């Protein structure tokens, strides 16, 4: 029994020693095997990745600000301050247009007068992974609606580390500009020159339903009149930049087809702000917005409907007419 006990004790001791050695070995391996990325220490421009430079902007008189800068790649941070230098390179636009010609877009450089860069140099500070931001301010009111714009900005050099040339150019792109608008129809007094509701009974189809904000009702005439109009009068001159029309819930032949949109300050002298011919509505209760270039304040706005979709005969209907002001 004594001999067996000694063997067991010796075996347990060896097992414990081996266990300790294994733990030390594992700890040693973990300590030496730090996380590492093949791009560790590369300097790049985050805005050059994927579609991060695609801009969604509104038409405004005040600048809209986007930020850009440099970044440190990998699992670690910069060990010392790194200076990053940028440049605007509009010469890249021609090649960009050629490469993406299949999309059917042609890009123009954002005019110098429409943008401002706060700096062309920034610092990626020690202990950080992103640089101090550079501000790109764009005043969209100086751009043309409907035109596609591009501003290529290149990270051209860094004071330390490797510049990742695959992510060194951001193509700041403007494909569309959104317009903020407010509906000010209810601030005006509505009038018209034809209404069948008094004769046939109001079944939600009188002229007043054209501006009631209810798209399930409509203005219906049993006989279209080529001299018909509807108008909205404001208590003081007001700038209207756009208007909408909504088709009725049935019978597309009754839709408005041809019309003029006019403004006046005395109800006698009228200025044509928009003209439409052979306008069609693809769907029932479809709302279409019609923008104008108007910048003049008028007290009265009139819609002269010169033909319905039936060529000027039969019934007429329209669900809603709204006036919009951009801001």
UniProtKB/TrEMBL annotation:
Pfam families: BT_3987-like_N, F5_F8_type_C
Keywords, comma-separated and alphabetical: Membrane, Transmembrane, Transmembrane helix
Coiled coil: none
Chain ranges passing through the membrane: 12-30
Segments forming domain BT-3987-like N-terminal: 43-159
F5/8 type C domain span: 202-312
Highest taxon above the source species: Bacteria
Protein name stated in the entry: DUF1735 domain-containing protein
Lineage: Bacteria, Pseudomonadati, Bacteroidota, Chitinophagia, Chitinophagales
């Amino acid at each position: 029994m004594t001999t067996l006990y000694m063997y067991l004790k010796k075996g347990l001791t060896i097992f414990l020693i081996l266990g300790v050695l294994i733990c030390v070995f594992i700890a040693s391996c973990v300590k030496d095997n730090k996380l590492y990325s093949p791009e560790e220490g590369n300097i790049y421009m985050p805005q050059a990745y994927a579609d991060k430079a695609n801009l969604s902007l509104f038409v405004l008189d005040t600048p809209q600000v986007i930020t850009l800068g440099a970044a440190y790649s990998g699992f670690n941070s910069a060990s010392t301050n790194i200076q990053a230098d940028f440049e605007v390179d509009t010469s890249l636009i021609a090649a960009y247009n050629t490469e993406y010609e299949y999309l059917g877009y042609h890009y123009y450089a954002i005019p110098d007068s429409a943008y401002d860069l706060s700096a062309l140099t920034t610092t990626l500070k020690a202990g950080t992974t992103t640089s101090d931001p550079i501000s790109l301010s764009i005043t969209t009111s100086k751009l043309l609606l409907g035109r596609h714009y591009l501003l290529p900005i290149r990270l051209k050099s860094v004071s330390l580390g490797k510049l990742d040339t695959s992510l060194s150019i951001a193509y700041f792109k403007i494909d569309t500009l959104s317009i903020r608008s407010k509906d000010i129809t209810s601030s005006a007094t509505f009038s018209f020159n034809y209404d069948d509701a008094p004769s046939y009974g109001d079944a939600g189809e009188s002229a007043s339903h054209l501006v009631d904000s209810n798209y399930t009702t409509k203005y219906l005439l049993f006989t279209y009149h080529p001299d018909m109009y509807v108008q909205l009068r404001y208590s003081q001159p007001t700038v209207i930049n756009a208007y909408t029309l909504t088709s009725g819930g049935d019978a597309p032949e009754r839709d408005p087809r041809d019309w003029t949109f006019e403004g006046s300050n005395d109800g006698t002298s009228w200025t044509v702000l928009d003209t439409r011919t052979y306008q069609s509505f693809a769907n029932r209760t479809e709302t279409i917005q019609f923008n104008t270039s108007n910048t003049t304040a008028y007290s009265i706005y009139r819609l002269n409907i010169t033909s319905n979709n039936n060529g000027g005969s039969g019934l007429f209907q329209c669900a809603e007419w709204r006036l919009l002001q951009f801001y």
